[in-house]
Amino acid sequence: MNLIKKFLDYARFSTGDFEKIFASVEMPPCPQVVATLMRKLNQPDIDIDHIVPLLESDVSLAARILKVANSALYGLPGKVTSIAKAVGLLGLTEIRNIAIGYAMTKTVNDPGKEGFQIEQYWSDAIFRAVFSKMVAEHIGVESDEAFSAALLQDIAIPVLMDRWFYLYKDVFETWLQSEKRLHEIEDEILSWNHAQAGAWISKSWQLPDIFTCSIGLHVTSMQDIKELNLENSVVCPVALSNKLSVAFEGKAPIEKAAREAQSMGIGMETLEELYEESRGMVSSIAEALGIQSG
To answer: Quick one: 237 exposed, middle or buried, by C-beta within 10 A (0-12, 13-18, 19+)?
Structure first.
């Protein structure tokens, strides 16, 4: 790589200005069918008769919707055999969320770097998504949004590993040898972190604001989330899923995650039950999403 280009890339990378950071990088686009779906769902008067043919126009997306609809995630009483029936049973909000998950699986590539295991990445992402959905149901916030926002929370990591590894290498290698959390090392070395980068990707995909907030704040403490008046939103389940996952990676004490859960009215016994139930669903949800998980 040209030395001057490396220098300019580093200058952009160190600013945290994502418009500049990703200016010379072909960002993973949101699949066209999903982008079109997002635009239609943002219209005030949605014509469902136009949504079903759009979903059916992409065979892969249609198959994914049916597979997820029939998965353990929903536990519907009968087999869903058509897109129209899936839309009727699940509703447009959940169809949108399944489509967003589909977009992510089409976007995230294995960077093929030593120390990064794409199967483990997906396993953790799906666990966080399922756990967030269950916590959201428990505390009475939008569980469907919690699932998708949690699935997307670390989307920037494989993008950075794949496209910017020569600059992100120090961060990643330091993290592998450290007991610190990834975002703490990123803040120290780069002055920004993957949560902020993920929020930028969400915004560039024109996803709902609550997704962008959840992704950008998933490394934030519950106290800070409350100070932003977001304690009654899906931001909380998403952030808790991160903290519990980090605790079981050995990067933070489980007591800290338990305190955060307690602030949401979730005791240790319930937290353990939600954890075990979520872990037990990872394989089936990964299969429904068409993902190889660890």
So the answer is: buried
